[in-house]
Amino acid sequence: MGQANYQQQVLGILGGGQLGRMLIQSAINYNLTVHIMDPDPEAPCKNLCRTFVQGDLKDYDTVYAFGKTCDVISIEIEHVNTAALYQLEQEGKKVFPQPRVIELIQDKRTQKQFYQDQGIPTAPFVLTENKADVARHLDFLPAVHKLGKEGYDGRGVQTIPDAGAIGRAFDAPGLLEKFVDFDKELAVIVARNEHGAVKTFPSVECAFHPVHNLVEFLFSPAEISPETDQKAQALALKVIEKLDMVGLLAVELFVTKSGEILVNEIAPRPHNSGHHTIEANFTSQFEQHLRAVMGMPLGDTGIRSGAAMVNLLGEAGYTGEALVEGLDEAIQEKGVYLHLYGKKLTKPFRKMGHVTVLEADTGRLREKAQRIKELIKIKA
Amino acid sequence: MGQANYQQQVLGILGGGQLGRMLIQSAINYNLTVHIMDPDPEAPCKNLCRTFVQGDLKDYDTVYAFGKTCDVISIEIEHVNTAALYQLEQEGKKVFPQPRVIELIQDKRTQKQFYQDQGIPTAPFVLTENKADVARHLDFLPAVHKLGKEGYDGRGVQTIPDAGAIGRAFDAPGLLEKFVDFDKELAVIVARNEHGAVKTFPSVECAFHPVHNLVEFLFSPAEISPETDQKAQALALKVIEKLDMVGLLAVELFVTKSGEILVNEIAPRPHNSGHHTIEANFTSQFEQHLRAVMGMPLGDTGIRSGAAMVNLLGEAGYTGEALVEGLDEAIQEKGVYLHLYGKKLTKPFRKMGHVTVLEADTGRLREKAQRIKELIKIKA
């Protein structure tokens, strides 16, 4: 066995939000040198890394110059300048996920076409160019209209149950997707390193906020049959293999009422649906991301404990300097783990943190998660 | 339940080594603002905190000026200027552990006298002023000679089995302690906050390096009877209560062959014997330290999994820039957690990192810990 020299490689991460922050917490264990770039001078990663560069993630020169200071370049948000990443890749830098994959995923239209081309099951869809175009597909309703580019954290998605709601459609290139009458929404996180090693995490179950399209609760493991779990994991594996991608990929899935599994969306980075892995699995998604992009052996993804994850969203009606309510009461409970993201300002539905709750019994877990959600409020 | 404002308090920590580093990893979850001071401009905490101040921990003015920028002041090493801390305390700063406790523990002589005065069982001892003084107590041999002040990480302790070994004694104020023919060495970590809440971690078992007086392996839980565990926890509780201390206290204990439990030494901060708690207990010692000094409710200390901790010491014969050997093979195993401390230079027996190994079965755990120890080598 040779000597590992991960400590001599500079890892650059585009994006310095909460995902970058949790990547840094994990990177400290391996003594990795992490450089971060984010447009926000007060980004959650500021003060936690060797080098923090304030810069525009979409600007060619800025991304290129940042990448030149690194050996391995990765992302924690996919809205980045891929032209610069292609150039860096060509100059011999390791860019994981590959620019090709980031570019494909940046546009939900090419993402959908990729599923279709590769025989990956997904909901029927049509591409739309503008609002008028959406109105031409009334036969497709009820449907979900998705903006092709720039959607994030629940933005860029609108449900269009009937013709009367066409006004909600985006007046820009997007896609109209047939509404899936699903039984459950699952997510599977899968990792692959440059040596071709691949590992999936067990399926988790996501409960979305009815209005804001943000994960409200997550439960691990999902309450599904072992067969469904295996089918979901196999599908995630197929996606990352077909993408020929190196890094971590979150695959969001629908289980339809007839038991079919469809790919909804994918994200080539750590994801909200994997936050519980920090405490609940043998390897966290953040460590797995680092292992994958640095070419390390992948870690065991097994479950250590049943878990729920509760997103801490900025309370409606409060904008300003964040104050955490109910914290003392919550953290007195066994197996309650707070993660605040270091964002100074709260606004309605902004992701301010999350809480992981460990509990083996499924019924008690759901009850505990609900109680924590009612207890902790982010106000101003 | 009111609004917790821990985020508005600046926590200053004297010392920026590995203990400070792991405190920071934990503080990120609570979005605490941490200021660190350490004499080494390349200390392990450098680059990981809002404010890193290079400064002499023993200098009055330096410590005082640093403390003035903080609301709560704590330590990760006890060799600090207590006069400055007394002054800061008097000016209304929260200093936890209290200067009085740090001062008492800084000198192993006053530490021992404290046990005696408070009826806390400890090995018989005599105070010695110099080497000649040690030679006057041959009737006390076999014994251990301990330097009163400045001992750390195995330095400042010498075994003196017989008169022929008197030459090893320190020629400075110290104490000669009767050699304890112990069955096991245990450690119990206990925390207490300013509201008087107290919690102990279950007893762990330490295996020391035969020559260098450094923990080589640690096993949790200790293989002892429930009664012995309870006696050990009760004794740790008694020590922190008698000290009237706020913070985290590691209590090292001997279990004698006749089943008696004696206090060996104490440290008023996170301790090598609690590193496994990061993965193996519901609350880590680092989070518990933060909770205690910030006045938060204490966390549950229960065991999530049986665990071993292996210290990664600089390999004998290597001095220079550290290289980690055997890492890839080690981290392929399930439940193996690497923690490198970010020290650039290795030297023989320097604490460079640790590995926590999770495993329920006691036999397999010891075997796995031994294998990891043989696999990972810190060379140059």
From TrEMBL, chains A, B:
Catalyzes the ATP-dependent conversion of 5-aminoimidazole ribonucleotide (AIR) and HCO(3)- to N5-carboxyaminoimidazole ribonucleotide (N5-CAIR). Keywords: ATP-binding, Ligase, Nucleotide-binding, Purine biosynthesis. Residues 112-294 form the ATP-grasp domain. GO terms for molecular function: 5-(carboxyamino)imidazole ribonucleotide synthase activity; ATP binding; metal ion binding; phosphoribosylaminoimidazole carboxylase activity. InterPro entries: ATP-grasp, ATP-grasp_carboxylate-amine, ATP_grasp_subdomain_1, PreATP-grasp_dom_sf, PurK, PurK_C, PurT/PurK_preATP-grasp, Rudment_hybrid_motif. This is N5-carboxyaminoimidazole ribonucleotide synthase. Homodimer. The keyword Cytoplasm does not apply. Gene3D superfamilies: 3.40.50.20, ATP-grasp fold, A domain, ATP-grasp fold, B domain. Its EC number is 6.3.4.18. ATP binds at K108, K146, E177, K178, F179, V180, E185, N264, E265. It comes from Cyclobacterium xiamenense. HAMAP family: PurK (MF_01928). One of its GO terms (biological process) is 'de novo' IMP biosynthetic process. Belongs to the PurK/PurT family. SUPFAM superfamilies: Glutathione synthetase ATP-binding domain-like (SSF56059), PreATP-grasp domain (SSF52440), Rudiment single hybrid motif (SSF51246). It catalyses: 5-amino-1-(5-phospho-beta-D-ribosyl)imidazole + hydrogencarbonate + ATP = 5-carboxyamino-1-(5-phospho-D-ribosyl)imidazole + ADP + phosphate + 2 H(+). Pathway: Purine metabolism; IMP biosynthesis via de novo pathway; 5-amino-1-(5-phospho-D-ribosyl)imidazole-4-carboxylate from 5-amino-1-(5-phospho-D-ribosyl)imidazole (N5-CAIR route): step 1/2. NCBIfam families: PRK06019.1-5 (NF004679), purK (TIGR01161). The keyword Ligase applies. PROSITE patterns: ATP_GRASP.
